[in-house]
Amino acid sequence: MSLSELMYLIKWDLKINRGLSWDSVRAMLLLLEFRSEQYVYRKLSTRPHTSTRLIWTVFRAFGVLFQWFLCNSNIPGPATIGRGLRLPHPQNIIIANQAEIGEFCTIYQNVSIAWTSP
């Protein structure tokens, strides 16, 4: 993922979630944190060094705390989510690392997107 792709995704996410309500502000902050985490993960996942794992672990730990305190949610960087994700009520959203969500998807509160192994 390049920096221009990151900015493109953020632009669409902010455009879809615009508004002045508290939920819109929390959704925008949550998506900004998720997209930055996604960018760092994509950049560091191609490098197998121990130092990059440490950087990712620290970045992810900060992201978990930020998402948890902001809206009790967990959207990890390895998840693949298309542009224009809409979060009308961003509280209690749990998404698995392996999740693949398409473009212009709407996810409401109290949703878990996970997988089970066979």
Topology diagram in text:
Layout (H helix, E strand, L loop, with lengths): L2 H14 L5 H23 L5 H22 L8 E2 L11 E3 L4 E2 L9 E3 L5
Parallel strand pairs: 1-3, 2-4
Helix pairs in contact: 1-2, 2-3
Strand order of the largest sheet: 1-3
**Distance between the ends:** 31 Å
Helix fraction, binned, reads: 40-55%
Q: In percent, how much strand structure appears in the residues?
A: 5-15%
Element string (H = helix, E = strand): HHHEEEE
The number of helices is: 3
Largest sheet: 2 strands, parallel
C-alpha-based Rg, rounded: 14 Å
Mean pLDDT equals: 88
Count of distinct strands: 4
What is the structure about, briefly put?
The protein is mainly α. It is 50% helix and 8% strand.
Describe the structure.
With 118 residues, the chain is mainly α. It has one domain. It contains three helices and four strands. The chain has helices at 3-16, 22-44, 50-71; strands at 80-81, 93-95, 100-101, 111-113. The strands form two sheets. It has a two-stranded parallel ribbon with strand order 1-3. Strands 2-4 form a two-stranded parallel ribbon. Helix 1 (3-16) packs antiparallel against helix 2 and helix 2 runs antiparallel to helix 3 (50-71). The mean pLDDT is 88.
